[in-house]
Amino acid sequence: MNFIIETVSKSTKENWCDNIGCTTCGGQDLMNFMYRKAKEDLERDGEIQTSLENINYFLDYRRMEENVKSKFIFHICEKLNNIDDDFSDTAPNFYREANVLRRIIYEVYILLNSDNDELRNLLKEQGLASRLFEDMERHYERDVARWKHYEEYNSPEAVKKRREEKRIRIEHEHNERVNKSKVETSAKSSSMQAYLRKKDRNLFQDIIEKKLDFPVNLLPVNELDELKKEIKNLDIISTSILIKNFPKKSPDHIKVFRKELVDHKRFILSKISK
Question: Which of 33, 57, 92, 96 has the fewest CB neighbours in a 10 Å radius?
C-alpha cells in the first residue's frame, strides 16, 4: 500500500493535527508516522545502508545527511505522484485528507530548504500533489500580498499621510459648513430686513401663523421692545403659541422676551383659577 495514502488515512482516523506551521505540536504525530513508513519502505528496498533506528522524531529526520535526505525526498515525491486524480473522488473526507497531503508536501518543501522550483520539478505535472502545491503557492502569494498591503497601510508614512488628509478633509468640511451658514444667515437677515420695512405688518400674528421667512431669534431688540407693549393684550392661546415659537436656546434679549410671555401666561392662568 502507498504509505502516503496509509498516512493520510491514519491521520484522518486518529484526528492528528495537520496545520502547517503549528506552534503547539508541530503536527508531530502525522510527521513521525509518515517518516517511519518512508524509512520502512527504504530499508526494505535496500535504499538505506546506514541504520536510522535511533531516529524517532520528525525534526531529527530533517537533520539527516544530505545523501540520505535526498532518498527520502525522492521516495516521498514518488509516492505522492502515484496518488491519481481519482483520489479526490474516492476519499471519504477529501477536504480533511487534502490538508494532510498539503502538510506532507510542506514537509518535503522544508527538506528541500524551501526550494519551490526543485519541489515543482519533483512533482508530476498535472498530478494531484502538483495541483495542491500550486494552490499552496497561490495561497502564499495572496498572504504575502495581504501582509505587504497591511505593512504599507500601517507604515508611519502612510499613517501620517492619512492623518493629514483627514485633517484637510475635516477643515474643508468645516469651512463649507461655515460658508453655508454665513450665506443662509445673510439670506435670512436680508429677508428679515425686507419684512421689517413693511408698514402694514402684524409681527405677532405672522409669528403665530408661521409666515416669517426667517427665525424669530434674529429679531432685533427694538422690535421686541415694541412687541412687549402688546403682550398684555394677548389671550392664553396666542401666548402659548408664541412661547413655542421662541426657542429656549436663544440670544439673551430673546430669552428675556420669552420669559415675559411665560409670565403673562401664568398671570392669565392665575386669573382663570380664581
Answer: 92
How is the chain split into domains, by residue range? 3-153, 155-199, 202-274
Question: How far is 19 from 9, CA to CA, in rounded Å?
Answer: 16
Long-range CB contact pairs, 60-66, < 8 A, 24+: 61/35, 62/110, 62/111
The 10s digit of each residue's pLDDT in 97-134 is 889 999 999 999 999 998 889 999 999 887 889 999 99
Centroid of chain to Cα 218: 47
Residues 6 or more apart whose CB falls under 8 angstroms from that of 241 comprise 208
Q: How confident is the model at residue 50 (pLDDT cuts 50, 70, 90)?
A: low
Instruction: Please tell me the number of Cα atoms within 13 Å of 187 on its side-chain side.
Output: 7
- Is the CB of residue 130 less than 8 Å from the CB of residue 99? no
- C-alpha closest to that of 140 among 24, 20, 23: 20
Q: Which residue has the cell 519533483?
A: 122
What pLDDT, on the 0 to 100 scale, is given for residue 266?
93
Angle between helices 66-81 and 3-14 (to 10 degrees): 80
pLDDT at 103 (0 to 100): 94
Report how far Cα 207 is from the mean position of its chain's Cα atoms: 51
CA atoms of 139 and 105, how far apart (whole Å): 14
pTM of the predicted model, to two decimals? 0.61
Mean pLDDT over the full length of the chain: 89
* Distance between CA atoms of residues 100 and 19, nearest Å: 8
Percent of the chain with pLDDT over 90: 59
Q: Give the phi and the psi of residue 98 in degrees, each rounded to 5.
A: -65, -35
**SS3 category, 219:** coil
Nearest-angstrom CA–CA distance, 110 and 247? 76
